[in-house]
């Protein structure tokens, strides 16, 4: 069994997609190990979460987006949970996300210069899953 960390980002919560996302996790047969609503994510936590991206031009927009409202964080486990959840999310840019994926069904690509609001996050490797679980649930 592999564990991964996921976020339902502020646009997902704002748009009432929490139930939809959790339903997909459950129906896929992934196990929900932890689940929490965080009402006021602080900037320093987001900076640590996205430490590899803080130097990017779009980072200030990404931080504003991620602190713009409540988000849901959780841990799921299953066989190949990391790649399974990444496939369920779809491509980062919603314009390239396959229909049927969460991003491909529910997200739109932003205008130039804005953060990509794409509903969900998922760890991209066992190392980042371990780091992100420790960061958010320490
Ligand atoms: P991922 O979420 O699909 O793993 P990452 O490259 O790790 O993609 O980027 C993290 C998040 O940063 C994305 O989900 C998206 O919200 C935002 N983002 C990534 N690239 C861009 C960009 O070029 N412009 C604006 N926002 C971006």
Automatic annotation (TrEMBL):
<keyword id="KW-0547">Nucleotide-binding</keyword>
<feature type="binding site">
    <location>
        <position position="86"/>
    </location>
    <ligand>
        <name>ATP</name>
    </ligand>
</feature>
<feature type="binding site">
    <location>
        <position position="58"/>
    </location>
    <ligand>
        <name>ATP</name>
    </ligand>
</feature>
<protein>
    <recommendedName>
        <fullName>Nucleoside diphosphate kinase</fullName>
        <ecNumber>2.7.4.6</ecNumber>
    </recommendedName>
</protein>
<feature type="active site" description="Pros-phosphohistidine intermediate">
    <location>
        <position position="121"/>
    </location>
</feature>
<dbReference type="GO" id="GO:0004550">
    <property type="term" value="F:nucleoside diphosphate kinase activity"/>
</dbReference>
<dbReference type="InterPro" id="IPR023005">
    <property type="entry name" value="Nucleoside_diP_kinase_AS"/>
</dbReference>
<dbReference type="InterPro" id="IPR036850">
    <property type="entry name" value="NDK-like_dom_sf"/>
</dbReference>
<comment type="similarity">
    <text>Belongs to the NDK family.</text>
</comment>
<dbReference type="InterPro" id="IPR034907">
    <property type="entry name" value="NDK-like_dom"/>
</dbReference>
<feature type="domain" description="Nucleoside diphosphate kinase-like">
    <location>
        <begin position="1"/>
        <end position="138"/>
    </location>
</feature>
<keyword id="KW-0808">Transferase</keyword>
<keyword id="KW-0546">Nucleotide metabolism</keyword>
<feature type="binding site">
    <location>
        <position position="118"/>
    </location>
    <ligand>
        <name>ATP</name>
    </ligand>
</feature>
<feature type="binding site">
    <location>
        <position position="103"/>
    </location>
    <ligand>
        <name>ATP</name>
    </ligand>
</feature>
<dbReference type="InterPro" id="IPR001564">
    <property type="entry name" value="Nucleoside_diP_kinase"/>
</dbReference>
<keyword id="KW-0418">Kinase</keyword>
<feature type="binding site">
    <location>
        <position position="9"/>
    </location>
    <ligand>
        <name>ATP</name>
    </ligand>
</feature>
<feature type="binding site">
    <location>
        <position position="92"/>
    </location>
    <ligand>
        <name>ATP</name>
    </ligand>
</feature>
<keyword id="KW-0067">ATP-binding</keyword>
<dbReference type="Pfam" id="PF00334">
    <property type="entry name" value="NDK"/>
</dbReference>
């Amino acid at each position: 069994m592999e564990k991964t960390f996921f976020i339902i980002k502020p646009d997902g919560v704002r748009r009432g997609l929490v139930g939809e996302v959790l339903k997909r996790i459950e129906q896929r047969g992934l196990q929900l190990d932890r689940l929490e609503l965080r009402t006021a994510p602080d900037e320093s936590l987001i900076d640590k979460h996205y430490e590899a991206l803080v130097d990017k031009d779009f980072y200030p927009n990404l931080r504003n987006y991620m602190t713009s409202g409540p988000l849901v964080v959780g841990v799921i486990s299953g066989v190949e949970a990391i790649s399974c959840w990444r496939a369920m999310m779809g491509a980062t840019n919603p314009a390239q996300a396959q229909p049927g994926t969460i991003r491909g069904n529910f997200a739109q690509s932003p205008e130039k210069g804005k953060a990509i609001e794409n509903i969900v996050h998922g760890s991209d490797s066992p190392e980042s899953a371990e780091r992100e679980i420790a960061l958010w649930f320490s």
